[in-house]
Amino acid sequence: MAGIYIHVPFCRHKCTYCDFVSFPNRMDVAEAYMACVIKELEMRGKELEGRSFDTVYFGGGTPSVVDPKYIYAVMRKIKESFTLSARPEVTIEINPGTVSEQKIATYKRAGINRFSIGLQTAIDAQLEDLGRIHNVRDYLYCTSLLKGENFSADIMLGIKGQTREDVRKTVEIAAGSGAKHISMYALTPEDGTPIYTDYLNGELPGGDEVAALYDYGRALLAQKGYARYEVSNFCKKGFESRHNLNYWRRGEYVGVGVSASSFMSGRRLLNTSDLDEYMKCILSGFFPVIDCEEVSERDAKFETVMLGLRTVYGFSPAAYRQTFGSDWKEDFAAAYKKTKEFLLEEGDCVRIRDEYLYVQNTILAEYAD
Ligand code: SF4
Fold first, then answer.
1. How remote is the CA of residue 204 from the centroid of ligand 1, in Å?
2. For the stretch 39-56, what's the b/e string if a residue is b when 16 or more beta carbons lie within 10 angstroms of its beta carbon?
C-alpha cells in the first residue's frame, strides 16, 4: 500500500538551522495555497484511481500554523479522491508554539490519529538559540491536550553547548509526557543557514561528541522501553511510524504541495520549490513537476539494499532475488566484501549489526559506488 504526503510550507519564524522549504513571511497566501493543494489532490486522485493508500502525513514547514479548517478540508478531499485502507495512519507535524484545544479537536474530527511534535530540547535557552518559537512549557501544554493519543516527540542532538545532562532532561520530558514514539536526530549544519557560522567557528559539538550523546540517549530510551527500529527512530511496541516504514521499504507514495516528491510506477517526481510557480501551475491545471526520472534497475537495487539497511528489519535477499532475478551479493560484490563484518545475516534477513547502525552512512557509501 502507498502513502500520501502533504507539504505545508508556512512557519512563524525561520529557525537558525532550517533548510527545509518553508516561508515565514508568506502566511498571507496560506488560504490560496491550501486551495491549490486541494486541487492537486483532485488531479492526482484521478491519475491514481485503483490504488490503495494506508498513510497520510502532513509535514512542513509547520502544518499546525495554518487554520485547522484547511487541514480538515484537505482530509475531506483525500477521502473523496483516494481509496484509503480501513484504518489509515494519519499524522500531522505540530509545533508546540502553535496549538490550541480547538485545533486538536478539529484535527481529530478530520481523522488525524497521530501527532509528531517538535520538542527538540528541554532546555529553554537552547530552544531560543535555535530560533524555535516554543518553550518547554508550550510542549507540556501541547502534550496535555494529547493525553492518551498516539504522539511522537522529535529531539535533537548536536546543539551548541548541549551536555549529557541536557539530553537526559530532554529524554525524561519526552518520555514522561507519554510519547509513544521518539525521533532522536543529529543536527546537520547546512551551508547557508545561520547556524552554519557556529559550525565554521567550531562552536557546535564535533562528530565524536554527538556520537557519545547519541549512545547515551539511546541507552536512556532503551531503559524507558523505547526500542530502536531505525537509526533515529525509537518507539514503544507497535508504534512504529507506518508512513516512514513505507519509505524505507521502498513503497510508493504521492507527494502533494510545493517541493513534494513522489515515487509511483517506478518513477520519481519532484514538484517545484517556488511557491508562486507552484500555485500558478496548479491554477492553470498543470502538475507543478520540475523533475521526473525513471528509476534505473541499478538504482532500484541500491535503494532496496540502502533503505533496508537503515532499519533494524534489514532486507530480504529472497525478495531481492524475486524482484530483480539476481543475487544481491553478486550485484554488490565489492561493497559486500568490504562491509560484511558490519552485517548480520540471519535466515532471510540482512541487517547492520546493532553496534554499527549509527555509522550506517559510512557502510552504505560503499554500496553507492
Ligand atoms: S519550524 Fe521547522 S520548518 Fe519551520 S523554520 Fe523551524 S525547522 Fe524550519
1. 19
2. bbbeebbeebeeeebbbb
Cα separations in angstroms, 6 against 56, 101, 146, 183, 274: 8, 23, 22, 20, 16
Ligand 1, closest atom to CA 60? 3
Q: What is the whole-number distance in angstroms between the Cα of residue 61 and the centre of ligand 1?
A: 5
Q: Which atom of ligand 1 is nearest to the CA of 13?
A: 5
Nearest to 62 by CA among 15, 129, 113: 15
> Both 170 and 307 in a single domain?
no
The CATH number of the domain holding residue 17 is 3.20.20.70
pLDDT at 25: 86
The predicted structure's pLDDT at residue 174: 98
Both 316 and 182 in a single domain? no
Ligand 1, closest atom to CA 19? 8
Residue 61 gets the label, from left (phi > 0), alpha (psi -120 to 50) or beta, of left
In a domain, 122, yes or no: yes
Same domain, 229 and 317: no
- pTM for this structure? 0.96
| 187 is a domain residue | yes
pLDDT at 369: 72
Q: Please list the rounded mean pLDDT of every run of 10 residues in the chain (369 residues).
A: 97 95 94 98 94 97 97 98 97 97 98 98 98 97 98 98 98 98 96 94 95 97 98 97 96 98 97 98 97 96 96 96 97 96 96 93 90
Instruction: Count Cβ atoms below 10 Å from residue 124 Cβ, excluding itself.
Output: 14
Ligand 1 center–CA 121 separation, angstroms: 14
Q: Whose CA is closest to atom 5 on ligand 1?
A: 14
**Ligand 1 midpoint to CA 22 (Å):** 7
Calculate how far, in angstroms, residue 339's C-alpha sits from the geometric centre of ligand 1: 36
Q: For residue 56, which of 109, 6, 95 has the smallest C-alpha distance?
A: 6
Give the separation between CA 92 and CA 66, rounded to whole angstroms.
Answer: 12
Question: What is the bridge-based pairing of β-strands 151-157 and 114-120?
Answer: parallel
Ligand 1 pocket list (CB less than 6 A): 11, 14-15, 18, 20, 22, 60-62, 95
